[in-house]
Structure formats: structure tokens, C-alpha cells
Amino acid sequence: MRSFDKRVAAVTGAGSGIGRALAVRLARRGALPALADIDGEAVRATAEAIERVCPGSRLLVTELDVADRAAVQAWADEVAGRFGRVDLVVNNAGVGVVAPVEDAAWDDVEWLMNVNFWGVVHGSKAFLPYLKRSDDGHLVNMASVFGLVGVPAMSAYCASKSAVCGFTEALRQEVRLSRSGVRVTTVLPGGVSSAFARSVRTSPQVDADALAAISSRVAATTPEQAARAILRGVKRNRARVHVGPDAYVIDWAWRLLGVGVEPFARGIAARLLPLPWAPESPEP
Ligand SMILES: NC(=O)c1ccc[n+]([C@@H]2O[C@H](COP(=O)([O-])OP(=O)(O)OC[C@H]3O[C@@H](n4cnc5c(N)ncnc54)[C@H](O)[C@@H]3O)[C@@H](O)[C@H]2O)c1
């Protein structure tokens, strides 16, 4: 996408963190943002933030659960109907669960997959026909470096983000083969200092406050830096966008070491996650 000016940009999870920063940055670049979030108050606050920096911006603000397939389709139709086109879609909404597999509640695992995986599939399928009609359509799906490596106590999250990677990378090749002109980007953030850790669901033995404190301490990137990296990647038509130095380190460690990276992942998880895991003794 050469320029965001006058481009219609739909962003999910726009009420907080990376989604809010993307929405504000897109508005500053002249885009017409269509913003959605399950938290209506939060997404209206994003709209107010945009109004402060870009008074008179043309906006569409929608309270939306991306896990609801029919609602996502209705939103896509509404965005296209209101603005007459859709050029950029960022399937950004996401949630977390921190719990060892044995203790994770079924409801929490399903909730996470419904938002992180199905939400991305819903958004991609609903908007694809509209993006194909744009002369510069671009789809961005939010994965994570935790979609590349497994992290203890984050199995559902890692699975959902791996699924987003696989789905998005297959779709990118489909649209190339069909010569539809739509571009597709997978985003792989490392740690970003957002409200994300505050909203994760945990098993009873996880200290959620300690988890939030640790996450904010180790996050290497701000949401604004993440938004800048993502939109730069869209402009340069990058297949994958890494966000933050830690994202490159984790990706390259995985490529070079394969499963040899697991002791590091375990060491970091044992040190950082507030779980009653003892430090590892060497394997016999
Ligand atoms: N923060 C990080 O360290 C990090 C790292 C890697 C990937 N990510 C991914 O980046 C994306 C954005 O995360 P963030 O850090 O900005 O988190 P955040 O919690 O600040 O923002 C997420 C937003 O998504 C919204 N949301 C949650 N469930 C929803 C639903 N069902 N329908 C619509 N909206 C919903 C929330 O209300 C919130 O406004 C997520 O997909 C997350 O998995 C974040």
C-alpha cells in the first residue's frame, strides 16, 4: 500500500494497545478508520483520541465480538456500505490464557481459540471480497512470536497464534495464485507494553497481578512503536513483520536451534511466570 491517505482501514481490538495505536496512526496518515472492539467504551475512547489529534475525522465505531461470525460479516458489510470500499483490514483483537495444560479451564481454551483464531478467520473471510475490489487491498493478521515457539503455560495461546501463522501464510499464497492483487501480512510481535497481561485468564495457581507486573517490565516495545513497524511493513508489502528486537531474537533462535531452543524457553518461563515450577535439574 503506497499511501494510507483516503484509504478505508478496518481494525479490530481498536480499544486498547496496538489496535488503538494503529487506529490513531492511520487517522494521522489520512485514512478513514473503521474501529471495532468488544469493549464499546474503550473503542469510543479511541475515537475520542482520534478526534483530538485529527478533528473532523470520518470514523465508524462498532462494538463487536470477533468470535461472532455473523456479527463480523455484518460489520464488514457495514464498513463497505458506509465508505464504499475497504482497503486495509487488521485482524488484531486477541486475548490470553496462562495456565498449565492440566489446569486450564475448557471454557478459557475455547474462548481464546474463538477470539484469536476464529476471529482472524471470520475477519479474513468477511473482508476478502471487499479487499479484492480495492486497487490496493491489504490484509494484516496478528500472530505472535509465541506462534513460532512453544512456551510453558501458554499452550492455547501458542496454538492459536501458530494457527494464525499457518492460515495467513496459506492465504497469502492463494491470493498470489489468484492474481487478486490483495497483499497479506503476518505480524509477529515480541513483548509489547499494553494492557494485554491484565486481561489474560489464568488458572488459580497463577498470580495474575504478578504476571501483569512482570509483563510490563519485560515488554521491549510500546504500542506506538508496534503500530509504526506494522504500517511500515504494510507500505513495503512485507510478508512478515517482526515487532521488537526480542521478536527477531526468538525467531532466529528457533531457526538456528530448532527444539534446542526449548531449554531457554523453559528457563525464561520458570523465571518469569508466577507458577510453582522448580528450577530444572539436568536430564540424566
Ligand atoms: N502485548 C503483547 O506483548 C503481544 C505480543 C504478541 C502478540 N500480541 C497480539 O497483539 C494483539 C493486540 O494485543 P495488545 O497487546 O494490543 O492487547 P490489548 O489487551 O491492549 O488489546 C486487545 C484489544 O482486543 C479487544 N478484544 C478482546 N477480545 C475481543 C473480541 N472477542 N472481539 C473484539 N475485540 C476484542 C480488547 O477489548 C482490547 O481492546 C493481540 O492479538 C495479541 O495477541 C500482543
Automatic annotation (TrEMBL):
Query: Which residues does the UniProt record annotate as the domain Ketoreductase?
Result: 7-195
PROSITE patterns, A to Z? ADH_SHORT
Q: Which residues form a coiled coil?
A: none
Question: Is Transmembrane helix one of the keywords?
Answer: no
The protein's matches in InterPro entries, at most eight in alphabetical order, are given as: KR_dom, NAD(P)-bd_dom_sf, Sc_DH/Rdtase_CS, SDR_fam
| Keyword set, alphabetical order | Oxidoreductase
Q: SMART domains per the record?
A: PKS_KR
Q: What family name appears in the similarity comment?
A: Belongs to the short-chain dehydrogenases/reductases (SDR) family.
Output this protein's name.
Answer: SDR family NAD(P)-dependent oxidoreductase
Source species: Streptodolium elevatio
